[in-house]
């Protein structure tokens, strides 16, 4: 049994979709533990015992009487892909495609996701309305540059990040594209990124994930 802790549409969305892509059923194979982030449930002692940083997601794996906790969305996503190789979420280890897969997930989490922290949580980095507005504006500019790069790559090598093959990296991009709806140029307005979003959105596993998390 897996327990995936998160909030609707937060960084848990990609690993949650990976569980669905792997063929796991919510309620029997895993449970999505929905936290009320606005109420601060991710900062309460019970959750901090799982993730001391007080952020989502966290995956609890209970097997053979033992308990393992995995944090960080990208790490959880890649671990699920490795646990269920038949899902096709990750290319063969050691292949050129596997290297590209690592590169994309690292870029999406270290570069793009990090800029979203600046965009949505400027108050984490600087005090004062003027300073926070400047941080958000800089992040907005950087994110549009990142999505332009992704768009150009999809135009040349798509329809997915690894070409013809869908992978867990596409779930991560889907999640970040959704986060980009509030940019001055929404991420889905980039032509190829928008098509990629619709393509991933059409997958039954992704639709089930959104329904479970309560996202219309």
Automatic annotation (TrEMBL):
PROSITE patterns: GST_CTER, GST_NTER. Residues 94-216 form the GST C-terminal domain. It holds the Pfam family GST_C. One of its GO terms (molecular function) is transferase activity. Residues 1-88 form the GST N-terminal domain. Keywords: Transferase. Gene3D superfamilies: 1.20.1050.10, Glutaredoxin. Belongs to the GST superfamily. This is Glutathione S-transferase. It comes from Oceanibaculum indicum.
């Amino acid at each position: 049994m897996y327990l995936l802790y998160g909030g609707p549409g937060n960084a848990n969305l990609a690993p949650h979709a990976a569980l669905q892509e792997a063929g796991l059923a919510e309620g029997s194979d895993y449970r999505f533990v929905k936290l009320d982030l606005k109420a601060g449930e991710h900062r309460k002692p019970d959750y901090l015992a799982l993730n001391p940083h007080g952020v989502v997601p966290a995956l609890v794996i209970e097997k053979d009487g033992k308990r393992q906790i995995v944090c960080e969305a990208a790490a959880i996503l890649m671990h699920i892909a490795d646990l269920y190789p038949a899902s096709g979420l990750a290319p063969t280890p050691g292949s050129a495609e596997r290297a590209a897969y690592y590169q994309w997930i690292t870029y999406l989490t270290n570069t793009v996701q990090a800029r979203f922290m600046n965009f949505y949580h400027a108050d984490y980095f600087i005090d004062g309305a003027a300073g926070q507005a400047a941080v958000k504006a800089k992040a907005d500019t950087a994110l549009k540059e990142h999505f332009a790069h992704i768009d150009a790559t999809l135009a040349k090598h798509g329809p997915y990040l690894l070409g013809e093959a869908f992978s867990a990296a596409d779930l991560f991009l889907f999640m970040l594209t959704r986060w980009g709806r509030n940019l001055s140029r929404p991420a889905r307005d980039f032509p190829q990124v928008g098509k990629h979003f619709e393509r991933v959105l059409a997958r039954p596993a992704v639709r089930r994930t959104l329904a479970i998390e309560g996202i219309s």
